[in-house]
Structure to design on (51 residues):
């Protein structure tokens, strides 16, 4: 697959990432490389852990 739609912003991306937490396909802008998950999950986990 060359391109995919980001589950967060809905834009087509040639650099799709899949969230290891919820499985969503997101673009590079909406992917947290360090945590390996989409920004939705990264924000949620960060909020829970209160880091
Ligand atoms: Zn996006
Ligand atoms: Zn996610």
């Amino acid at each position: 697959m060359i391109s995919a739609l980001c589950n967060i912003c809905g834009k087509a991306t040639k650099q799709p990432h899949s969230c290891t937490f919820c499985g969503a396909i997101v673009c590079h802008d909406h992917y947290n490389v360090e945590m390996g998950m989409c920004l939705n999950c990264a924000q949620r986990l960060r909020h829970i852990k209160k880091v």
Observations:
- Strands lie at 4-5, 12-13, 17-18, 25-26, 31-32, 37-38.
- The first helix runs from residue 39 to 49.
- The chain has a mean pLDDT of 91.
